[in-house]
Amino acid sequence: MDAEYIIEMRDICKSFYGVKILHDVNFKLRPGEIRGLLGENGAGKSTMMRILNGIYSKDSGKIFVNGEEAHFTLPKDAREAKIAFVHQEIALSANLTIAQNMFLGLEITRGKYFLDDAAMRQAALDALKSLGLDLNVDTVVGTLSIAQQQMVEIAKALMQDARVLVLDEPTAALSEKEVRFLFQQMRRLKEKNVAIIFISHRLNEIEEITDSLTVLRDGYIIADGTPTKGLNSSEIIAMMVGRSVTQFFDGEKPQGTGEVVFEVRGLTNQRVRNISFQLKKGEILGFGGLVGAGRTELMSAIFGLDPIESGEMFLHGKKIVNRNPREAIQHRFGLVSEDRKHNGLILVHSIARNLTMNVTSTFIKGIHYDKAKEKAIVDEYGNKLSIKMSGMDQLCQYLSGGNQQKVVISKWLASGADVLIMDEPTRGVDVGAKSEIYRLMHSLAEEGISIIMISSELPELINISTRIAVMHEGELNKIFDREELAQYDADDLQKEIMFYATGERD
Amino acid sequence: MGKKEINLKSLFKGVGGAFFALILMVLALCVFTDTFATRLNFVNLLKQITCNCLLSFGLTCCLITGFPDLSVGSHVALATVEVCMYQNMGMSLEVSILLTLAVGVVIGAVNGFIFSRTGMPAYIVTLAMQNVLRGIAYVLTNGGAVIVANDVGMKFFNLSNATIANWIPYSTLILVVAFVIINTMLTRTVFGRHMYAVGGNSSTAVYSGIDVKNIRLVVYTISGLLAAIAGVLTASRVYSGQPTTGVGFEGEAIASAVLGGVSFTGGIGTLSGSLIGILIMGVMSNGMNLLQVNYYWQLVVKGIIILVAVYVDQVKRSKTK
């Protein structure tokens, strides 16, 4: 006897470190329904799906599968309940064959210990065939295209006779033709009464393939099960945006001056195409866009980490080339990476070491090590940015996220950066430290430092930036100048930015 | 005065346990043997640790920068052969030594160059070099030892075997000089600071504009030079070139450094710490010889002690987190 809903999530709440991410989330899904799950970056989509997958535990609420309450504590539990996940990042082992991957952890055995390769190869072949895929099951997965790998993942998920399939941004890496193929498969599954949860930022795809929508905003369900038919993209965007924008920072935006400090003309490489913009003295130029729009890649190219194929850069009107980060630093650029643990800090080293890393040669000359001068530098920035530390020898791994970020920022200030690129500067820091970092950015801009800020949070982008550039799939679609920004109220501006970020307008 | 004390303290920071263990071992040997605390044994001990000490200094630099140099053991063997052969070819002692050291620099630079430019793992590059160098040492000698035919005034022999005031071998002075130079490099120069940065997180180092490739190149060159010096002194001590010597020396050198608090994953460690590790390994071998422990059992004991020491260190580190 089948229940009306294959999945029902009732009043799900979830908090991390005292911050509530999901507020009484209610979600119902019918068999054979293709549901689009929408929301801005950070709206709570992944958290919600991870709870359904058993990766996170819920704080409160109930989950029903086919009318029966389910208790998922491990991904295995979800798998046994016939819910299959295809994650955004490919989760296959590149060194194993298709057949080996499809049965990883579920190996068919002869007796208890011996692999039954023939049976697994045959079953893998059948699974691929049922999806209309013509692939050799002995092919090593690493040699397949991303799209093919994705199809293998889907085949793997379906092989377990899934009743619910969750696709997390499956089209991000696919070409148009491959997307067509995927949609064809999705429709075929729908006929077999499989329910699909489809997460995507591409509104045209949502409009085309989904039957209904669920929209999350700030951890609240805004709509659940609303039929897609009859909605246009601006109505959909209106549901997604509209987060309160005064929540973190209510100060004035830095004004900036007219003086152009830095200019990029026609920058193109493998990841970005024909990017041009100007950065003015004392402004914060925000870069908006969806995750994967090429913003980080653009900054890597500017900073000399990635090669540039064509295009020019000008600093104070003079043409410059940053062939590597060393040259960028000499040109007084600084880059606060989005991944401070990998690219910003040496966690096993002290605050002093990290903070003075770019300026070691100012206090160590030959074998003369001027410890007092080193301490003076650490004290200066420690006080200026009010870094909470037990002493300059404290290891960075013991600092909070906010304080770690301040050490990274100090490092660049100490090296005299006057073009400071900050990639998701408030990622992984708590709310209090967030507003502290905003204030800091503001005062740095007032001092005449020009800041480029990448942010995937619209309220942050709107609140902090003097001007806003929006990127979509490697291209810079729009720059909102100050006058333009002033025309919109916060809600409309979020919608406008979202239009450009999703490529609905360019 | 006060400043000096602080420096001494920081010199032994983080290796207090190892230092304590060393003192305990020395005291125990003083009590349980009547041969340990003698002038003769003291001189002997200093001679015995010379080779491992130099290799371990080199490995300390390599490990701080992130990865080991596995070629140093066979490099020692090749250098012992070289320095004797050059003399037998008619070169003066000084020229022979300089030539051996020059070859050492080249070998180290080749290691560093391949590792830093091709991105092949340092383990593989230096492991391959280990075989190459051992092979060359055998090829040059046909597998036999090379005896120095004409050592004018025993100058070569005296390098390792003559002592100052009957207490300190000349070779020990070389250790002191090497220690001072390398310790200064690590603690007081920009280059040394950058070595720690590369080992601590090479990606962050790249973002900070540090020339990771050239730092690795230089560090492996230093390791090569130190291995060549170790080879020259080893040859002088046994008065011959031995293509079979040096097997497993890289393991002992790594163990000494790690015992002294150098992190196997890079970015952490001091030369003074390594020195304590070197002394522990040296006193342990020396003591077990005096206690007439069978050599085969000595290997077993050493292996176990390394495991325990590194485990204790790891527990200590995870506790402070």
UniProtKB/TrEMBL annotation, chain A:
ABC transporter domain span: 7-243, 255-498
Keyword line: ATP-binding, Cell membrane, Membrane, Nucleotide-binding, Repeat, Sugar transport, Translocase, Transport
Keyword Ribosomal protein part of the UniProt annotation: no
GO molecular function list: ATP binding
Superkingdom of the organism of origin: Bacteria
CDD domains for the chain: ABC_Carb_Monos_I, ABC_Carb_Monos_II
Name of this chain's protein: Sugar ABC transporter ATP-binding protein
